[in-house]
Fold this sequence. Notes:
- The protein has 261 residues and is of the alpha/beta class.
- The protein folds into 2 domains: 2-201, 2-enoyl-CoA Hydratase, Chain A, domain 1 (Alpha-Beta Complex); 205-252, Lyase 2-enoyl-coa Hydratase, Chain  A, domain 2 (Orthogonal Bundle).
- Helix content is 45%, strand content 16%.
- The chain contains 12 helices and 11 strands.
- Strand 1 and strand 2 form a beta hairpin.
- Helix 1 packs parallel to helix 4 (89-95) and helix 10 runs antiparallel to helix 11.
- The chain is globular.
Amino acid sequence: MAQQPPHENILVEREGPVATVRLNRPQALNALNSALMTELADALEGLDADDAIRCTVLTGNERAFAAGADIKEMAGASAIDMLQRQRFTQWERIRKLRKPLIAAVSGFCLGGGNELAMCCDMIVASESARFGQPEINIGIIPGAGGTQRLTRALGKARAMEIVLTGRPITAREAYAAGLVTKVVPVEVYLDEALALAREIAAKPPLAVQLGKDAVLKAFDTTIEQGLDYERKNFYLLFASEDMREGMAAFVEKRRPDFKGR
């Protein structure tokens, strides 16, 4: 892989239409401090705007995807301090990415780490992965979407258990509950995530982006509004060159050449 100029807290690599962004604070189990989140949002937005990149994998290392937020940054803060720091601005930037983002998770995925993984569109987990929201143990609750995304993914009863006890769940439990896409051996978790990214990157980019957009809309709307939104995206794709190419290739029994137009 060709590597981009270095950041302080993340590593960014590209291989064809797939980018890999690696959280790189191993001495702190990739704890999410403000500097890391700013670098991460900047990098992901840059990749999202790059026509050459069609899918991105976000990962940590074998020991930890991210063990949580950096508590040292918050320990002495007041409520007004936290409000004025606008801590969640970077999270909103990540939430608005158009292209698919796949989390490749191994080891600890706790607190802010779990919230970051849930910001991604899919999660490929190693068998060693542990997902949880332990904020209750230090007198707070999740603040970057943990209570909301866990409830949507797992349902009220399981989300309540995880948030109110702080106990983590295993990768297999997370898969059974619908939180993760697949669980694989530790040795291949990143390879599997990259294979999934390459598969998606081979699809027509506009259809991928509008498909992601429509699925996410299901969390924000009634079924009637969601169906209406889906149909509008469906109709819109009939204006794309990729739709013409895809259908022509199907009829002509050849491989399509998608351009993202």
